[in-house]
């Protein structure tokens, strides 16, 4: 895992060095900067494959130069194909394979490679830059484009100097706690969407973006459950196997959940030596899954390391959160993710994870909520609107809030979208409709749960889950690989009947049945606690002064489009224990810390 940089702006080398230094945690093993014609290419290397200096980047092959972040898992197969075509290699790296693959096939190389990646290639003969991002957005790709000047980077921090805040992006953040592609927090800087490539013609100063992969219309397989389970098992075995390639120590994250247990179990069978597994536990039993993970480890025979943490261990990471998540990001599970990677780095450089399993195999709690509310949503809206304002709501007791949301939501699609966005809850006026970039979920399937899963993959997975994992791991120079984010697994899961994945409230049914081949069901069939921390309690207790100081009137009045009076009312209700507004307060707190970090409070 690495950091990439490329620009046509004539910066002095010292300026580029400072830019790369600001994100040096992405690649501490080597910093490379090359000036080629009128372009500057920079690279931060975290050495994983072919540790020799011959594989340092920027990497050159004939008239092509590349800066590349990620891993091409099937690079050995592609290398064999290129050898048959007469190409020769000087390294054992996937970087060289990718670059020569582009030489041989142009943009068609993207159809051949299986991996997580963000890269830019400069063709000095054609005077063009070709860039691409992996299918599911595992690796980040930011670019600045204005007045024929551009910069490309793995993180936004090196691109922020002298930039203006994008007020629409702030409003989007307040709605959904992250900023989805193609938007960023500042003007004229964008994210390249997943499954897209970008070409910059430096002769005509034209920038064009094209899609090379996306989710497709769902076609359900005519297959028995047992055959599907066997096929999925084999696919997962291969997805794990190709992610075990490494020239540095490798391990696996192991929580109390199904997904990491299955990945670790498969890895333990494939590996000739006992694998290393890692988990963190908490001194508060409400949040601790470490005992379940230790049971898993004992059964699969891994060398397991559990680190028990206190609330202080988490609290001390808040400054780190602001440092490495250099765009506003309000998923509080980023804190334990940082802690897990800090522990893991002491032992290995590469770790497998179970990320992505919930999206494809219907694992999140909100999928249950959709099923519970489906009957209500299917009542004509005019009738539901009347019911939402009557005494009948009292019949639902503690579920009144959930039912009211269902009664007031116009369509099924609106209900799905409400999972991810508060749609102006904290805003004075309507913000830009960022969902226009994510409307594909409406057409790919007629199945209610599949629609929600597809939006989960396209919106949440890229902009929340993948960002959380990338920044938390890179903060400690750890490379995380998730077999469930193999695009073949995603495509295969979508082709299975919904009843294979979700049946009568049994989430991830088929994964559970595969896991039974490794771990007894009574061991893994325990309540999932999630990767959460008690942020809401900290706000009212040990961090109360910190939060009230950060959320002062001076800051709140600087936030564009924020309904300040409404937010202050929520803040007071939370601090007095009248209601739980943790999510909204945490959003504004992380935004405040970002404003402070990057000098926007002046």
TrEMBL record:
Q: Does the keyword Transcription apply?
A: no
Q: In which pathway does it act?
A: Amino-acid biosynthesis; L-asparagine biosynthesis; L-asparagine from L-aspartate (L-Gln route): step 1/1
Q: Which InterPro entries match?
A: Asn_synth_AEB, Asn_synthase, ASN_synthetase/amidase, AsnB_N, GATase_2_dom, Ntn_hydrolases_N, Rossmann-like_a/b/a_fold
Q: Please indicate if the UniProt record lists Membrane as a keyword.
A: no
Q: What EC number(s) is this enzyme filed under? A: 6.3.5.4
Q: Which reaction does it catalyse?
A: L-aspartate + L-glutamine + ATP + H2O = L-asparagine + L-glutamate + AMP + diphosphate + H(+)
Keywords per UniProt? ATP-binding, Glutamine amidotransferase, Nucleotide-binding
Domain Glutamine amidotransferase type-2 residues, every copy? 2-203
| Superkingdom in the source lineage | Bacteria
> What family, per the record?
Belongs to the asparagine synthetase family.
What protein is this chain from?
A: asparagine synthase (glutamine-hydrolyzing)
Q: Which organism is it from?
A: Flaviramulus aquimarinus
């Amino acid at each position: 895992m690495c950091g990439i940089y490329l620009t046509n702006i004539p910066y002095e080398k010292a300026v580029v060095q400072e830019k790369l230094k600001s994100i040096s945690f992405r690649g501490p093993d080597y910093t490379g900067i090359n000036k080629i014609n009128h372009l500057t290419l920079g690279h931060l290397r975290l050495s994983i494959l072919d540790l020799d200096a011959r594989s340092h980047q920027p990497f050159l092959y004939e008239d092509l130069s590349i800066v590349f972040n990620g891993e091409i898992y099937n690079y050995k197969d592609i290398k064999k194909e290129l050898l048959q075509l007469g190409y020769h290699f000087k390294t054992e790296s996937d970087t060289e394979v990718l670059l020569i693959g582009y030489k041989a096939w142009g943009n068609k190389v993207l159809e051949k490679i299986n991996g997580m990646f963000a890269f830019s290639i400069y063709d000095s003969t054609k005077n063009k830059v070709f860039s691409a991002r992996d299918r599911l957005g595992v690796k980040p790709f930011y670019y600045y484009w204005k007045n024929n000047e551009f910069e490309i980077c793995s993180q936004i921090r090196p691109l922020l100097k002298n930039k203006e805040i994008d007020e629409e992006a702030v409003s989007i953040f307040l709605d959904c706690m992250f900023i989805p592609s193609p938007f960023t927090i500042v003007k004229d800087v964008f994210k390249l969407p997943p499954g897209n490539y970008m070409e910059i013609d430096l002769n005509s100063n034209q920038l064009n973006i094209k899609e090379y992969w996306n989710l497709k219309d769902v076609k359900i397989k005519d297959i028995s459950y047992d055959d599907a389970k066997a096929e999925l098992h084999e696919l997962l075995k291969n997805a794990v196997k190709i992610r075990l390639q490494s020239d540095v120590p490798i391990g696996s994250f192991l929580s109390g959940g199904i997904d990491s247990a299955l990945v670790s179990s498969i890895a333990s069978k494939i590996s000739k030596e006992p694998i290393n597994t890692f988990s963190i536990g908490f001194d508060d039993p409400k949040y601790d899954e470490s005992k379940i993970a230790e049971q898993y480890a004992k059964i699969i025979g891994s060398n397991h390391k559990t680190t028990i943490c206190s609330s202080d261990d988490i609290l001390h990471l808040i400054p780190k959160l602001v440092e490495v998540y250099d765009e506003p990001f309000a998923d509080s599970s980023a804190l334990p993710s940082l802690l897990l990677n800090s522990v893991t780095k002491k032992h290995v450089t590469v770790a497998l994870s179970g990320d992505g399993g919930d999206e494809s195999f219907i694992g999140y709690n909100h999928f249950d909520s959709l099923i519970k509310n489906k009957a209500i949503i299917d009542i004509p809206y005019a009738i539901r609107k009347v019911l939402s304002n009557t005494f009948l709501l009292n019949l639902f007791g503690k579920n009144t809030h959930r039912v009211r949301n269902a009664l007031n939501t116009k369509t099924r699609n609106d209900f799905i979208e409400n999972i991810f966005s508060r749609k102006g809850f904290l805003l004075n006026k309507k913000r830009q409709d960022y969902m226009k970039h994510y409307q594909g979920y409406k057409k790919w399937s007629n199945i209610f749960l599949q629609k929600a899963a597809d939006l989960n993959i396209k919106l949440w997975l890229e902009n929340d889950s993948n960002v959380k994992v990338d920044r938390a791991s890179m903060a400690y120079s750890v490379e995380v690989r998730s077999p469930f984010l193999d695009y073949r697994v995603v495509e295969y899961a979508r082709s299975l009947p919904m009843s294979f994945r979700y049946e009568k409230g049994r989430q991830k049914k088929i994964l559970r049945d595969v896991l039974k081949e490794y771990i007894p069901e009574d061991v893994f069939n325990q309540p999932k606690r999630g990767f959460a921390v008690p942020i809401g309690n900290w706000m009212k207790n040990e961090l109360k002064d910190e939060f009230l100081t950060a959320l002062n009137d001076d800051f709140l009045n600087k936030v564009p489009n924020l309904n300040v009076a409404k937010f202050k009312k929520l803040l007071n209700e939370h601090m007095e224990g009248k209601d739980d507004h943790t999510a909204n307060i945490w959003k504004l707190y992380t935004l405040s810390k970002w404003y402070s970090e990057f000098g926007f409070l002046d």
